[in-house]
Hints:
- By secondary structure, the protein is of the alpha+beta class.
- It is 15% helix and 44% strand.
- Strands 1, 3, 4, 6 and 7 form a five-stranded antiparallel β-sheet that branches. The protein has a three-stranded mixed β-sheet with strand order 5-2-8, with no helix packed on it.
- A hairpin with a 2-residue loop joins strand 3 and strand 4.
Amino acid sequence: MKTRNFAVLLAAFALMTGCDDGVTEVCDDGNKAVITIYNNSLCTPDVSVGGDLVASDLGTFDEVSVEVDAGTYDVTINLSLFTTCTELEWTADVACGDSVMFTFE
């Protein structure tokens, strides 16, 4: 029974460590990278950075900024079912202290 428990524990550990969260370096406070998304459209999208929702129904001509550690992040613009705008996805490669801006049009 003990070897079975060990095998289950080993499999759980492999699953947890096998996920890549995109972070390559943890930045000091005050030196985080900043990803800003500006909405230059009439649509009100939901904005996600690295899989985390950072803005819901981002208003027209509004922006949202998020501080992140160094790494690679997917920036996703999701829209409601009925809209004239097109959903977008970008990839941001940032280092500590970087500032990146994406414009949704």
